[in-house]
Every structure is written in structure tokens, then in C-alpha cells.
Write a structure and sequence with these properties.
With about 260 residues, the protein is α/β, with parallel strands linked by helices. The chain is about 45% helix and about 15% strand. The chain has helices at about 15-25, 40-55, 70-80, 105-135, 160-180, 205-215, 225-235; strands at about 5-10, 30-35, 60, 85-90, 145-150, 190-195, 250. The longest helix is centred in the middle third of the chain and has 31 residues, at about 105-135. It is globular, with a radius of gyration of 18 Å. The chain binds NADP nicotinamide-adenine-dinucleotide phosphate.
Length: about 260
């Protein structure tokens, strides 16, 4: 098996952190499925850039990860077109449309955020893992991996976006669960936990965090970038951690450190 044959699915790969991940995987010669929900032009642009960076093949697939049937169809299409899946990066995620105090969190926002950030990735992972087990048994792939992009919000409480924090805390447990269940199958599962990253998602709070970061909120006093996360995922994808599963890789400039 050559490096050039490996295939990755990156959910929400069209923009932001997902795009940074796609770029790093492309440099490692992964063929990449760039999943997106609405912005097909961004997904196609990411595919072209990925091919320029070395991806042998790319494919943009529109699928809302909260729609379990759409997720299933994406997995089936990937296997049909590429014959294999070596890596799933569960990256797609959303913030609440409106930040509301915990006392005013709505059921609609709860269902939306947990549907995309938690329920969708759980069942997509179940589906991909099932395919990976089949592909392993057939000898088509070796040493597949699943990576979850969670958040500092898995453990940090933000009372104006509680539903987001709950979704990410839950997703960290999903990573632990699949790491435990799949180790014996030969599939490693790890979590990459970003801090504060400059993307569209954080665009609305850019000024606030400019000030807070300058004031020392993050020990490494700068915003994180999509490439910071991409490089962490790339290190895992490059087989730098063959004896590691269920690990949490903080990529947050030290934000998670307890300080006095
Ligand atoms: N930015 C941060 O500071 C930060 C920090 C910690 C963790 N994270 C996590 O990192 C991940 C990526 O965040 P980001 O900042 O890169 O966000 P972003 O810039 O808003 O990009 C989101 C990406 O996810 C896709 N997406 C959104 N909803 C989707 C759905 N239902 N199904 C499929 N794809 C969907 C979008 O595609 P379309 O454009 O087509 O909708 C886009 O490609 C998220 O899980 C987020 O929670 C971000």
C-alpha cells in the first residue's frame, strides 16, 4: 500500500478549520472528500487548492451531518468512488445562531446545535467505522483512524452558549467511547481540541477576543489559525502516533492551563 492511496473524509472541509485540515492532508498525499452543507463554491475552491497542494483526487460532497441519511449516502459514495476510507475527521460544527444566557436557551437552538455537533458525528462515525472494519477484513486498508475536532468548550463553561458547550463535552465522550470500542478492531480514535481560532465562526467576537488575548487570556498570545489545527491533524494522519488512541491533543496556545 502506498501513501498516495489513502482517502480521508473531512466534514465541514470547505472553510475555516476544515480547510486547514484539508490542506495539510493534501500535502501528505491523501485524497480528500470535502464535505460541506451549503457553500458549494467554497468546497470546490478548497478541492482545487487541495489538488494544487498534492491531493491525488478530491471530491466535494454536500451533506448536512445532522441528516443521518445524507451521512450514510456520503460514506457509500466515498467507498463507491475511491474504494476505501482511511481517515474520518469529524470537524463540521456550528455555534448557536444567537448567544443567549443559559436561563433563556431555547429548545430549538439546543436541538440544532446538538444535532449537528453531537448526534450527527456519532452516527457518521458508527457508519464509517463499520465500513472501515469491512475494509480492514478485506485487506483494502491498514491502520485507519478517526479524529474528532472538539473545542476548549468541552471543559470550559460559557453561559451564553451552553448548548455548544454541552455538544462539545458530549463529543469528547464520543471520542473516548469509539476509541475504547474500536481499538480491538485496529482503528485508532483521537481528539483534537482547539482553543480560539480565527475563522468565520469567531468573526462576530473578533474584537472582544483581540482584547482578551492581548490581555493574556491565552499564554501564547495570539489567535490560533486553521493551519495550527491542520498541522495537529496532519501529525496524526502521518502516523506519528501509532501507539496512541483516546488521546486529547490541545491546540490552544496553552489556554487550558490552570493558572494562579
Ligand atoms: N473557530 C474556533 O475558535 C473553534 C474553536 C474550537 C472548536 N471549533 C470547532 O471547529 C470546527 C470548525 O469550526 P470553524 O471555526 O472552522 O467553523 P466555520 O468557519 O463556521 O466553518 C464551518 C464548516 O462546517 C461546515 N458545516 C456547518 N454546518 C454543517 C453541517 N450541518 N453539515 C456539514 N457541514 C457543515 C461549513 O460548510 P458550509 O459553509 O457549506 O455551511 C463549513 O465548512 C467546529 O466543530 C467548531 O465547533 C472552532
Amino acid at each position: 500500500m502506498t501513501v498516495g492511496e489513502r482517502v480521508a473524509i473531512v466534514t465541514g472541509g470547505s472553510r475555516g478549520i476544515g480547510r486547514g485540515i484539508v490542506e495539510e492532508l493534501s500535502a501528505l498525499k491523501y485524497s480528500v472528500v470535502v464535505n460541506y452543507r451549503s457553500d458549494g463554491e467554497a468546497a470546490e475552491a478548497t478541492c482545487r487548492e487541495a489538488e494544487n497542494r498534492g491531493a491525488p483526487r478530491t471530491l466535494a460532497i454536500r451533506a448536512d451531518v445532522s441528516d443521518l441519511e445524507a451521512g450514510r449516502a456520503m460514506v457509500e459514495r466515498t467507498v463507491a468512488e475511491f474504494g476505501r476510507i482511511d481517515l474520518l475527521v469529524n470537524n463540521a460544527g456550528v455555534a448557536p445562531l444567537v448567544r443567549l444566557d443559559l436561563m433563556n436557551t431555547t429548545a430549538e437552538s439546543w436541538d440544532r446545535v446538538l444535532g449537528i455537533n453531537l448526534r450527527g458525528p456519532f452516527f457518521l462515525t458508527q457508519q464509517v467505522a463499520t465500513s472501515m472494519v469491512d475494509l480492514l477484513r478485506a485487506g483494502t486498508i491498514a491502520d485507519p483512524q478517526i479524529i474528532f475536532v472538539t473545542s476548549i468548550s468541552s471543559t470550559f463553561a460559557s453561559v451564553t452558549r451552553g448548548e455548544y458547550c454541552v455538544s462539545k463535552a458530549g463529543l469528547s465522550m464520543v471520542a473516548q467511547l469509539f476509541a475504547t470500542r474500536l481499538a480491538d478492531e485496529g482503528i485508532r480514535v483521537n481528539e483534537v481540541r482547539p482553543g480560539i481560532i480565527a475563522t468565520d465562526m469567531t468573526g462576530a467576537v473578533r474584537d472582544v477576543y483581540d482584547r482578551r488575548i492581548a490581555g493574556g487570556l491565552v499564554p501564547i498570545r495570539r489567535w490560533g489559525t486553521p493551519l495550527d489545527i491542520g498541522r495537529a491533524v496532519g501529525a496524526l494522519a502521518a502516523e506519528s502516533f501509532p501507539y496512541t488512541t483516546g488521546e486529547v491533543f490541545h491546540v490552544d496556545g496553552g489556554l487550558h492551563l490552570r493558572r494562579l
